Amino acid sequence: MTSDTVAPAAAASGASATERFFADKASSAAATPTERVDLLAREVLDAVHATIRRHKVTYEEYNALKAWLIGVGQDGEWPLFLDVWVEHVVEQVATESREGSKGSIEGPYYVPGAPEPSAGTTLPMREAEKGTPLLFQGQVRSVSGEPLAGARVEIWHADDDGYYSQFAPGIPEWNLRGSVIADEAGRFRIHTVQPAPYQIPTDGSCGKLIAAAGWHAWRPAHLHMKVSAPGHHLVTTQLYFTGDEHVFDDIASAVKPELILDPRPTGDGAGREVTYDFVLDPA
Ligand code: MBD
Ligand code: FE
């Protein structure tokens, strides 16, 4: 990724997520058994057919759908579409028997292999990174209460303009991304900046759907996290901020009450700090 000065273009973020998906995850698709594909494909199609009958869908509407579906692929926005409107239910089903910390969707903008921050536990950021400084700290424990020494806390989030590094142009490669190792007591401290509320790209096909349906494109400001330790289930989650206009009105339906932070001003008044502990289920 070049670090030029082009203004970030939102639709490019959706398309970059397609390349990212193929690089990391697409290969796992081949293993789905025939009976399972038959069952799931038939039920989804049955639901589509039932909707067409119930609402007497016209040829005009059918062709509008066709054009839109073709456009989603052309724009590279399938990962964006699926993660915004479908993933939250997959996440709910995948984690329903967990006792530890609540998870949330991964979304399209995770990149594996973020560096362990060199400047102590300050995330990589630009010299004049905009936004309120935020100290995020806590402890990683097992459901049994035992601290998990050396747990890995991965974090990635948007900048103060709502853009993610590696998905919007002009941002240094690992900006606001890091992988922090907890200490002997399972504790971690991460210095970053408060992310801004995030508007999903409005200039591609997902934006067209939002406009055509009269919806809004906003997600509340959020920190993405992956927390892991040997012998435990990895937790993928997101943390939000109390008072955010969209905290109960997330376009991606990915907020849970347990995931809302309430940071307080730091002693010097320059920033905010918050403590949040993670609890991992044994594998
Ligand atoms: C995001 O930043 C995000 O977290 C999700 C789930 C979808 C689109 C953009
Ligand atoms: Fe996000």
TrEMBL record:
Pfam families reported in the protein's UniProt record: Dioxygenase_C (PF00775), Dioxygenase_N (PF04444)
Gene responsible for this protein: catA
Start and end residues of each stretch annotated as Disordered: 97-118
Keyword annotations of the record: Dioxygenase, Iron, Metal-binding, Oxidoreductase
Residue span, Intradiol ring-cleavage dioxygenases domain: 136-164
Recorded superkingdom: Bacteria
Cofactors, names only: Fe(3+)
EC number, as in UniProt: 1.13.11.1
Name the record gives this protein: Catechol 1,2-dioxygenase
Gene Ontology MF term list: catechol 1,2-dioxygenase activity
Classification via PROSITE patterns: INTRADIOL_DIOXYGENAS (PS00083)
Family: Belongs to the intradiol ring-cleavage dioxygenase family.
Name of the top EC class for this enzyme: oxidoreductase
PANTHER family for the chain: DIOXYGENASE, PUTATIVE (AFU_ORTHOLOGUE AFUA_2G02910)-RELATED, INTRADIOL RING-CLEAVAGE DIOXYGENASES DOMAIN-CONTAINING PROTEIN-RELATED
Keyword Iron: yes
